[in-house]
User: Fold this.
Amino acid sequence: MLHCSKFKLDLSRPLIMGIVNVTPDSFSDGGHHLDTAAALAHAQQLLDEGADLLDIGGESTRPGAEPVEIQQELDRVLPVLEGLRGAPVPLSVDTRKPEVMRAALSAGAAMINDINALQQPEALAAVAASDVAVCLMHMKGDPENMQFEPNYQDVMSEVMTFLRMRIAMVQAAGIARERIVIDPGFGFGKTLAHNIALLQGLEAFAGLGVPLLAGLSRKSMLGAITGQDVAHRLPASVAAALLAVQRGARIVRVHDVRATADALKVWNAVNGVTG
Ligand code: 7PM
Assistant:
């Protein structure tokens, strides 16, 4: 079970987190969700397609992206959260900023997805003072510089050590194990070879004792493998999500919920998962 305030998610089947971007420059959505109404319509579509959670993001973490001002991020995310109040699934907010976390928690968010793994003390305190879930992601560097010659002695052991330390740190701050999810952070300061090594070793992360989330949807590593641009990465994304689940991921963060849901139905049927 994953505790996301009033929601208790059953992880006996793999879950789908649908991505709701509220950024004008998102590489994947081409800026179609500039306004709240469009983001809300998109969120509703993902719910209809079978999303088990929604991840709402107002800051582009595209490699090389400029940081977004706090107020701008609030202006993007809060109206969408308000508009989705009472939604049947937990609402996650993808943010690194403690101010945005606090406002999102007040507006009913049930999960914080922090690509910075709560390394800012105020971010840790904000989540610790609530009863929401948190996703702790590994990133090497910052979005502004992370794809500039990322390098590791051993990417698996470095990411494992980081996530193990963050799990211990957030637990020490009072966040129960049942509220924690981890994520190796595909594409965040990683070359194609690093991403493949992480995917090959994914089962080790699943062994850290908290649910594992994987975000591979439409990412450039899939473009590098298939030669497809971002508009044509659906088949590769579905394959990657299924591969991640097969290797222990319990939540997949995706743009294409319906296609992923169908793939996971096949996986569930073969693995004796019902319901
Ligand atoms: C531009 C480039 C826009 C990259 C968006 C992205 C993850 C995440 C993102 C992930 C978790 C994307 C990324 N990716 N949060 N946020 N894990 N936990 O492709 O892999 O969606 S943003």
